[in-house]
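[agent] plan:
  1. take the single chain provided in the ticket
  2. run structure prediction with default settings
  3. attach structure tokens to the ticket
  4. add a short note for the reviewer (M.T.)
[agent] executing step 1
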Amino acid sequence: MAPAVYSHGHHSSVVAAHAARTVANSAAYLSPLVEPGMRILDVGCGPGSISIDLARRVGDRGRVVGIDMSAEVVETARAAAAQAGVSNVEFLVGDAYDPPGERYDVVHAHQVLQHLGDPVAALAAWRAAGDLVAARDVVYSATVIHPLTPPLARWRELVVALQAANGGDGDAGARLKAWARAAGFASVETDVETWCFESPAGRAFWGGQWAERALHSAFADGTERHGLADASEREAIAAAWSAWADDDDGWMAMLHGWILARG
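[agent] step 2 finished; step 3 output follows
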């Protein structure tokens, strides 16, 4: 299978941002279908916040297994589950193309397919492992930012370009339906969800993390390695995100496509 190249990496700023994800803010489309007693596989679980939330929802009779390719972030997820006192979730180092060998009621993946070189093969593997596949991914090129200063417009371009250079797809959310049909699913329900950051807290969260990520995360390393941006351009992007976070007029929305695929 085509290898997964994770464009965001696991810098502390990235992991902290991902740990803020919940079912409510990142998988609301799936929430009505989660029932007590379900067995759920969470592919690309990261620091485990969504997995732990799902585990609470399936209750003691249910079970959630979270897998991620990073042993370091799996340990972070295990620590988070222990701290939360949630015992019906298990975190394993795993491969998105090769789910653990059991049957699940739901295979869930949030922001995973955009990083995979062969998303159709991954979806086919998830189809074999679960009765329902639920996946959500961003459409980066549709991100709306105000004020859209030149460095922030360049950030949007670079995120898409870096994903492509790493063999992924920054607009994966727009392709989920097509990929699921190619993977052989009989039924594919699809729609969109959004993130919007405009409050002081929301701007501080998004702008603050990206001011750091632009300089220190795999975004910095990747854009340098692929010749997409130099240090001065990344510094301008970091400064622009800080300025945006401080701007009371600041507003942004990110479009995410999702699928519920069966059969």
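[agent] step 4 note for reviewer: Residues 200-216 form the longest helix (17 residues).
[agent] ticket updated
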